[in-house]
Amino acid sequence: MPQVVILRHGESVWNELNLFTGWHDVALTERGRSEAEAAGRTLLAEGLWFDVVHTSLLTRAVETADVALAALGQPWLPVERSWRLNERHYGALQGLDKKETTEKHGAALTKLWRRSYDVPPPPVRMDDPRHPSHDRRYRRLAPDVLPASECLADVVARVLPYWYDSIVPELRAGWTVLVVAHGNSLRALLKHLEAVSEDEIVDVNIPTGAPRLYELDDDLSVRSARYLGDADAVAAAAEAVAHQAGA
Question: Residue 146 falls within a domain, yes or no?
């Protein structure tokens, strides 16, 4: 039975500060590292044995994968990394405080920018340091694929080609796959796997450090999906994500 686990990175420095992070590169906090280690122990307790790991190019996902794999006892697993698994680019919101943004622009507009399926936040200019063209890790990419801002629909459009080209062949080979990424890139995968509508995905929150296991049929349709670990803790963590903007 093919299996895939999605895992959102542990708490990052900008998560702790409640800032819009997006493609900005920040490390995990100590709490984030503890969440990653706990996720690894949860995967170990579940008896999962992985064949490959996929992460984004952002440090918080890379660190989470490293810490979780060490706790799982599988630090040697091959890892594939792609910008296509990066967090959503929040455009001109990146670096802003979420609650202060709500106070300044109102709850409705902030929620539209933050959670709307097809309305991106205001973009950054090419000469803005927050534009990905200024980051060396993306220097080999065509300039027109680098986002100045993204909505979730944009993230779905860049994540799904990676899913089909890189992950699906591994699942068809019967592998067990771990994907360590971000709230929005994983929401894009969840939307696809669970056939969540554009309206419903707005209210889906993925907690940090909580592995979600998918057991798939041979045609890769979802047989079952569940978070691993303490259900109450997972629910509380998801609720905390929902209220980060103070509304």
Answer: yes
Q: What is the pLDDT of residues 202-243, one digit of tens each?
A: 999 999 999 999 999 999 999 999 999 888 788 777 777 766
pLDDT in tens, 122-153: 999 999 999 999 999 999 999 999 999 999 99
Amino acid at 66: D
The CA distance from 183 to 109, in Å, is: 20
What is the number of structural domains in the chain?
1
Q: What is the dihedral of CA 218, 77, 227, 241, to 10 degrees?
A: -130
- Half-sphere exposure (CA, 13 Å, Cβ side) for 157? 10
In a domain, 187, yes or no: yes
Would residue 247 count as lying in a domain?
A: no
Residue 55 in contact with residue 17, Cβ under 8 Å?
Answer: no
The C-alpha atoms of residue 65 and residue 98 are separated, in whole angstroms, by 26
Q: How far, in Å, CA of 89 to CA of 147, rounded?
A: 7
Residues labelled as active-site residues: 9, 87
Q: Which residues have C-beta within 8 Å of that of residue 63, sequence separation ≥ 6?
A: 9, 10, 27, 28, 32, 33, 36
Tell me the residue range of the domain where 8 lies: 3-242
Pair of tokens at residue 240: 């905390």
CA separation for the pair 46, 232 (Å, rounded) = 18
